[in-house]
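USER: I would love a firmer grasp of how sequence relates to backbone shape in proteins. This is the protein in question:
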Amino acid sequence: MQIAIYSRVSTDKQDAQNQLVQLREFATKQDWPIVAEYVDYASGAKSDRVQFQTMFRDASQRKFDLVLFWSLDRFTREGSYQTAHYLNQLDNWGVGFRSYTEQYLDSTGIFKEAVISILSTVAKQERIRISERTKAGLAIARAKGKTLGRPTKVNGQHRAEIARLRSAGLSGRAIARHLSISEGSVRRANRVATA
């Protein structure tokens, strides 16, 4: 089994060598040849980490059979939904995963299905909680009279000018160009005027 190592520290002032030394030693003890190492010096809160993206591209091309990482929070900190998505993606490509410090997080072990199932369930609950918090926040904002949605660029003065230019025979595109607003804003203003 050929493996890749993924290591991450939050800033370039930190040293990834501690992780790498132990991950390499572990791979050697397992008789796993290391074919690639990916090291990011960035927050794990987003997936736009260069080496993380490269590792996923290589995984999709089956350049290795397993990704070994120090711990799940070194792999990603994007939340359980996104984490489950990443691990499922690796699994769909036929690439395993293993955490060095979390022995239960091992797609090559007997608990593979249980781990993915638990992570997926936690991710689903996280999505539900986020949705509920968002809906509650929107309801409170509406109750306070806050206007939601994209702010309009068209004000009362624009509406009057749009109406005047429309009656002068100008097209929506010409009005938009004349007032430096989008055609969509002109259409919305016309809908409001005729409502």
About this structure: The domain at 3-124 is CATH 3.40.50.1390 (Rossmann fold). The longest helix spans residues 112-143.
